[in-house]
Amino acid sequence: MPRLALYALAVCLLAVAAAVVSFVQGSWLGIVWVLLAGLSSNMFWYYLKRGRGAAQLQKR
């Protein structure tokens, strides 16, 4: 798995945890964390697919 994909996954998980904590405390700032989680999730899938495509090209 590409390193950037792992970093994006870590950011996504941390953002989800921060959103949960923020909403439990009654803060609406959790919406920002949810948006960051969505962005980092998309980055994770992008880098994962990009890494798999590069690996397939190297096998040829």
Give the SSE map.
Layout: H1 3-24, H2 30-59
Helix pairs in contact: 1-2
What is the 3D shape? rod-shaped
The overall pLDDT average reads 92
Classification by helices and strands: mainly alpha
- Report the end-to-end length measured between terminal Cα atoms: 19 Å
Please trace the helix and strand order, writing H or E for each element: HH
- Approximately what portion of the residues adopt beta-strand conformation? under 5%
Q: Provide the domain count.
A: 1
List segments where confidence is low: pLDDT < 50 over at least 5 consecutive residues.
none
Q: In DSSP terms, counting alpha (H) and pi (I) runs of 4 or more, how many helices?
A: 2
Q: What is the number of E strands?
A: 0
Helix content: over 70%
Radius of gyration: 15 Å
Largest sheet: none
Description:
By secondary structure, the protein is mostly helical. It has one domain. The chain has 2 helices and no strands. The chain has helices spanning 3-24, 30-59. The radius of gyration is 15 Å and the shape is rod-shaped.
